[in-house]
Amino acid sequence: MSPMRRATPEDNAALLELFGAVPMQGELVLSTQRSPDYFALFELQRGTTEVWVHEEGGRLDGMGAIHVREGWLDGRPSRVGYLGDLRAHFSARRSRGLARFYGPVLEEAAERHGVSAFLTAVMATNSAALQALVRRKASRAAQPHYALLRRFSAVSVQFLLRRKPRPSAYTVRRATPEDVPAMAALLDADHRVRPFGYRYDLGELEHRLARWPGMEAERSYLAFDPDGRLVGCTSVWDPAAVKRYRVLAYRGGMRWIRLGFDAMAAVVGAPRLPAPGQDFRYFYLCNTSIAGEDPAIFRALLEQVYADHQGQGFHFFTLYLGEQDPLAPALKGFLLRRLDFHLYAVTPASRPRDQFPPGRTGFEIALP
Q1: Which domains, ranges and CATH numbers included, belong to the chain?
Q2: Which member of 101, 127, 285, 332 lies 3.0 to 4.6 Å from 4 by CB, making a disulfide possible if both were Cys?
Q3: Where does residue 333 rank: exposed (0-12), middle (13-18), buried (19+ CB within 10 A)?
């Protein structure tokens, strides 16, 4: 009998413990906190989520989540998925108990939900995960197939010095409820051509505005060209109600960076970096669409977002930046930190696929 089973709300405490107990390692050691309700982040999203857990000796020692939604793939409406929250105690990794059942569970879920491909993100420095998940061996006949789609960075724009928006050809303002249809149309046209795009034509933006805590039209920014056409948008979302990053330790060079940053913060009145055991205050940029991938449009949006939120107690805001991203020049001059990831398309072992359309994907950095 398989020790894998579907999680229930009664598993909430054990899921929170395991999820927070497996940190992101590096010079900055972080733990992701989802209390008080592990399931809350999934409940914000449209679609279906299955959380699978692995037990050994009556103890939960491994977990993973499968989320399925309506999306775009190959230019056509399609059911797509995301694989995330993969965590395991050392005992599960050593016994490979979770690995033995991962492939069959995914195979069955893909068939049941009618999904041909999933997305997943793995930290570039997580060699253990890359070895266990991506490397293929003859002995792993049921292992899901991983195809590298993109390399990307979760870029954190640090709040420190005050900045005023520079003169630009583009006019930026906050959205109003009356702007929602135009913003949704811009996002829809963009995501239709993205592999794993979101169905903004089916009300994705309206759903986020209604269901995500703190998300409202006025938290979105719109960019207009000299002729008054909407050419860019992005939304500010603080996920603190459902997800936070807690500092566990500063190591190596980060200890010196912290000292220097805190000294400068004391001079300019910016918040100091959190001590071990404390959480960062941050927000994401999401619902981002830039006409023609023009970095000048993105720069105008970034300048206004930074100016409006500097001095509001946030340490940073986070955005997606792909390898050789045409929007990269927009970030010149900001104080940045990067966390590198690999974005994979995952297909069942029985239906492996290596080729996917080029271009920006529908991956939403705020949700994993």
Answers
A1: 4-151+341-347 (3.40.630.30), 157-240+280-340 (3.40.630.30)
A2: 101
A3: exposed
